[in-house]
Write a structure and sequence with these properties.
Helices cover 18% and strands 23% of the residues. It is α/β, with parallel strands linked by helices. The chain folds into 2 domains: 151 residues, Spo0b-associated Gtp-binding Protein, Chain: A (Distorted Sandwich); 188 residues, P-loop containing nucleotide triphosphate hydrolases (Rossmann fold, 3-Layer(aba) Sandwich). The strands form 3 sheets. The protein has a 6-stranded mixed sheet with strand order 10-11-9-12-13-14, sandwiched between helices. Strand 13, helix 5 and strand 14 form a beta-alpha-beta unit. The chain is rod-shaped. The two termini are 25 Å apart. About 6% of the residues have low confidence.
């Protein structure tokens, strides 16, 4: 299934039903007075977050949504029925903007969040409202008021507890597949992951959602590689996991570049809690001091970064392919979440 995270759609709320211009008719009553009722209210358009959805793909073929109109007023001063709201279900994490002005309208962060995005029109008044001492038989009734119509830009920003960040082919997809319930496409070539992937991590009674963000290259914040289209999916994660290839000639330079691209996109991302993984430990030969030497050199060079590498930053050596040291990785990751995770909130609200 194609992953679609940005679309534009049109919505129109229902028009109010027209008022009735009816006159009372009854046997032996020669000239009954006006008894036209009011029209019903047009339907609102409501956006609602649905945790079972993960993409905006259905809006590629369905781009306009019209809510039903209110019913016309009836005789005997009976009101027309109000129309039921039109509910459009969206993935949790969807940001809604006015497509014409760019104005931010709302974002659906939690399951079942809902917002009226277009209001239905009020029903018109029946002719009974217009009777006067001068005009006791008004033939006029109000038309219903038109419902609001607007164009919306929908942007999905995935909601995850932690996100994997690294160069293409750093082994993020393999890592996600072995520690979670997700099995993304895996290959030994750059940009294996062309869409963000999500997996649920389980440790005892705890749960968290881990996102694999497609590989970042230099210039991603300006659109290079898979660029801006996927950087937005890291915005909401609480913990960033930098995945570095242990065989890299200069892992500190990789780390610097990754953080620079994140900071260019959003300065706040650089200050999020993070941990560093040296992956592919199976591809190098080293003795007992190798990890210690690599970590010491990385920390030494990290002091010169802006901002510098945190003194207490967690640095772990793993092999996703051979599933080495993953238990320690999970223990460290879960220890960073002192409060309820997004995954745990989803389970609680089901």
């Amino acid at each position: 299934m194609k992953f679609v995270d940005t679309v534009e759609i049109g919505v129109r709320a229902g028009h109010g039903g027209p008022g009735s211009a009816h006159f009372h008719r009854e046997k032996y009553v020669e000239k009954g007075g006006p008894d036209g009722g009011d029209g019903g209210r047009g339907a609102d358009v409501v956006l609602q977050a649905d945790p079972s959805l993960s993409t905006l793909d259905r809006f590629l073929s369905h781009k306009f949504f019209a809510a039903p109109n209110g019913e016309p007023g009836r005789s005997l001063r009976r009101f027309g029925q109000d129309a039921d709201p039109l509910v459009i279900r969206l993935p949790v994490g969807t940001v809604v903007e006015d497509a014409d002005t760019g104005e931010f309208l709302c974002e659906l962060i939690h399951p079942e969040d809902s917002v009226v995005i277009a209001e239905g029109g009020k029903g018109g008044l029946g002719n009974v409202h217009f009777a006067t001492s001068v005009n006791q038989a008004p033939t006029y009734a109000q038309p219903g008021i038109a419902g609001t119509e607007r164009r919306l830009r929908l942007t999905l920003k995935l909601i995850a507890d932690a996100g994997l960040i690294g160069l293409p082919n750093a082994g993020k997809s393999t890592l996600l597949s072995v520690v979670s319930n997700n099995n993304p496409a895996i290959g030994d070539y750059p940009f294996t992951t062309l869409n963000p992937n999500l997996g649920v991590l389980i440790r005892g009674e705890r749960r968290l959602i881990l996102a694999d963000i497609p590989g970042i290259i230099e210039g991603a914040s300006k659109g290079a590689g898979l660029g801006l289209s996927f950087l937005k999916h890291i915005e909401r994660v609480n913990v960033i996991i930098f995945v570095l290839d242990i065989g890299s000639l200069d892992p500190t330079a990789e780390f610097r570049m990754l953080r620079m691209e994140l900071s260019k996109y959003s300065e706040a991302l650089v200050h999020r809690p993070y941990l560093v993984l040296f992956n592919k430990a199976d591809q190098v030969e080293y003795d007992a001091d190798f990890e210690k030497n690599v970590e010491e050199l990385f920390r030494e060079k990290g002091r010169d970064l802006d901002p510098p590498l945190k003194e207490d930053a967690d640095i772990l050596f793993i092999s996703a392919k051979e599933e080495k040291n993953l238990d320690r990785f999970l223990e460290t990751l879960f220890s960073l979440f002192k409060e309820e995770t997004h995954a745990e909130r989803l389970i609680r609200k089901r």
